[in-house]
Amino acid sequence: MLLAAWCLGQAARSQEFDARSAVYIECTVSGKVTGQGSGAVIDAEGRLLTAKHVVERAHANNGDCRGAIGTRINPNDLRKLTFRVVPENLDIVMMQFDEHEILTFVPIPFAGLIDIPKDTEVVGYGFHPDGSPTADRSVGKVISETVDASGRMKSGQNTQKGMSGGPVLIDGRLVGIIAAESFDRQGQQISTLFVPAKQFPEDILRWLTNQDTTRRDRTATILAEQLAMNDVCTQILREQISLRKNEFPTAAQIATPLIEASSSSLIEVADYWVTVTTGPARWIDCRTGKMLKALYFPTGMMLQPERDVTIDGETRTIFLTEQGLRVFLDHEAIEPITPDIGYVFATATGVFKVCKQTDTGCSVFDEYRITEHDQHWPFLSGYQSYLRSEEPADLDRASEALREMFEYQSDPPGPFDPLAIHLNLTDLGSLPACKEREARLYTVLMRFDAAKADKGSAYLEPVRFSLCTLHKKTAYNRLERIKVVTLAAADARFRNLWAVNTIHQPTENVQRVTRALFNVTQPIVSIMKCDDDRRAILTLGRAARGSVTALDDVVAADADDALAEVSTRRHSVFRQFQITQARSPVDVFKTAPLFNDIELSAVCAGNNEITNAGEIIVDLAPLAQKLELKLFDLFNDLKTSDEYRNLGMVDPDILNKRLREGIMYRICGFHEYIVWRSILFDEIKDSELVRQAKEAMGVDLALMADHITHLIMANVFSTDTRILNSQHRTERCD
């Protein structure tokens, strides 16, 4: 019997038929073509029906079948097909495009299990090898209602080779699949055979007749099973889904009743806490449930406890940091922020003198370089000491005065401006921010102890300090180098904050939920190597902005080869994160994608070696487009920084290895943290994208920049440092 289909007929096209509903199919075995035919798309997930004889040799011999949607001209349009249902005794199979998550389909509506009387007009579509680039159309009438022994009906139309497997329609709805031709004794074609829907096997009929219900039930079953798991990552995933109930109604209905009320014993003591030493903040490795070092934390980082969880039999607390990241921290690293207590921290590499009460020759306005401070104790520095004050209201007033001084020094007022009248930088008595204050001095190894006469501090009496410095008899504020932490400051910060959960390696649990939610087979891309084609990848981490695209410019207008080369000239590691609203009144994140990501992209050199001529690419919901930071520029900024001699550049081989693993730099101490934080913060703050996002969200620019800075540091930086305490008195990486 000749491979066949509906007739070639006229070139006219039915207005109700979309070209993307037909598929050209080509099968090979060991590189040789064994079958060519047509297919009919039946759902938006890329499933299609075709004639079994088109694909059976490839199926029997482990061959390869590929399909092109709506056209047969360009071999590059052929995409791999996988067999789904292959009946034994019928000339029909169901297949599916492997890359259905990145392709667009227009399924043909199913007419149902209707009778097809004689003389009913039917329309067929298929690809004739010598015909037009798109599927050819033919109109004919049914010759007989009788179904032969092979389950086929007859139509009185001519057909030609290559159109087998194409759809047969009545009023634009699928009623059958083209099967074969029938000839008389003289070799003249007298009819065309097609398999009517009533003869389809049960597995295919079940899919066609209950497609929506089947998919919905399958999705609900997967979600009910996976969302019931009680690990930390799944708990947070449930909350993310519940917040997006309008987008995921079925999943939200399952997840919401399973959400546990969050609580922490720390909240009974204080709503906010602050770090008083340095070390690694941690997050969950969702695959193993173990703790993973995620982010270096400095002194003075404000925290809000969210919930206590049990991991390996130990109770730990999830905190929201002032930069909007969820982390675990050791309780020994923190102190409470209460209405009657405030703190003062150094936030830069400067060292600020504080004075003992008995030292009358000491000046609280002195500063020292980090390399010469040891002989000037006592002092305030970012990784060695902090101040604890019993006058938080006074610190709040001083903070406001510091901001006033900062504005004055950044943009001096005219001579008649009221500010110029009362703000005399040469008269410390007129400057509320600069007066001498008292507070207790603590090293990072000390903790407050109410039972002791010295309260556990460095001295029996409080020390004297100032929030200003003197240079050439003129006072300068330390606003950007000293940080005041009070209940009012924490309240103001967290009032406008959101929360982010980083996901270094999504679990199979998260992957299954994601596949069910989005009906995709590869929802999250974690890594793309130098020889991977970026154009073929779609990741939910792209925040629904489309496929992962080549980062380089392609100059040539007609440059398919050049584009293919460019799109494989990158090595990228993707770090996913989930973002949600916390206590913030800003509602931008209520409709944010369930997954965003940060991509560390390096350029592939010879032999697939990689270099730092790449980018950090942040895909964050409030940004109008992806934010790109050039790695080369960032490393160059490090090299030209004042602290470079103390830090040193990483070895090129180590840098290459880390970039391949998705790590840009390893933080081992406060100085490295401060330098990199400053480099990233300045780059991000100056970005027009971030400024626009800041305006859209109505938040402070520094908050927006600080959030993105630490999001980057939590994803593409690493830390192996240890917490500074009585057991570990110096900062270094393990």
Describe what you observe in this structure.
The N terminus is likely disordered. By secondary structure, the protein is α+β, with helices and mostly antiparallel strands. 23% of the residues lie in helices and 29% in strands. Among the domains are: 191 residues, Thrombin, subunit H (Beta Barrel); 144 residues, no CATH class. The N and C termini lie far apart (74 Å). The strands form nine sheets. A six-stranded antiparallel beta barrel has the order 1-2-3-6-5-4. The chain has a six-stranded antiparallel beta barrel with strand order 7-8-9-12-11-10. Pfam families: Trypsin_2 (PF13365).
From the coordinates shown, what is the CATH architecture of the domain at 19-209? Beta Barrel
Q: For the record, what CATH class of the domain at 19-209 applies?
A: Mainly Beta
- Average pLDDT taken over every residue: 82
Instruction: Name the shape in a single word.
Output: elongated
Protein name: Trypsin-like serine protease
Summarize it:
With 734 residues, the protein is α+β, with helices and mostly antiparallel strands. 23% of the residues lie in helices and 29% in strands. The strands form nine sheets. Strands 1-2-3-6-5-4 form a six-stranded antiparallel barrel.
Q: Notable features of this structure?
A:
single chain, 734 residues, alpha+beta, six-stranded antiparallel β-barrel, elongated, disordered N terminus, Peptidase_S1_PA, Trypsin-like serine protease
Write the layout of secondary structure elements.
Layout: E1 22-29, E2 32-41, E3 47-50, H1 52-60, E4 64-69, E5 79-85, E6 93-97, E7 121-126, E8 136-144, E9 153-155, E10 167-170, E11 173-183, E12 189-196, H2 202-209, H3 211-226, H4 232-243, H5 249-255, E13 272-275, E14 279-285, E15 290-297, E16 302-311, E17 314-321, E18 326-328, E19 334-337, E20 342-346, E21 351-353, E22 367-368, E23 379-380, E24 385-389, H6 392-410, H7 418-422, E25 437-443, E26 463-465, E27 468-471, E28 474-477, E29 482-485, H8 487-495, E30 498-503, H9 508-518, E31 527-528, H10 560-566, E32 570-581, E33 596-604, E34 610-619, E35 627-630, H11 631-639, H12 644-647, H13 652-661, E36 665-667, H14 670-685, H15 688-697, H16 701-715, E37 717-719
Parallel strand pairs: 36-37
Antiparallel strand pairs: 1-2, 1-4, 2-3, 3-6, 4-5, 5-6, 7-8, 7-10, 8-9, 9-12, 10-11, 11-12, 13-16, 13-19, 14-15, 16-17, 17-18, 20-24, 20-29, 21-22, 21-23, 24-25, 25-26, 27-28, 30-32, 31-32, 32-33, 33-34, 34-35
Helix pairs in contact: 3-9, 4-5, 14-16
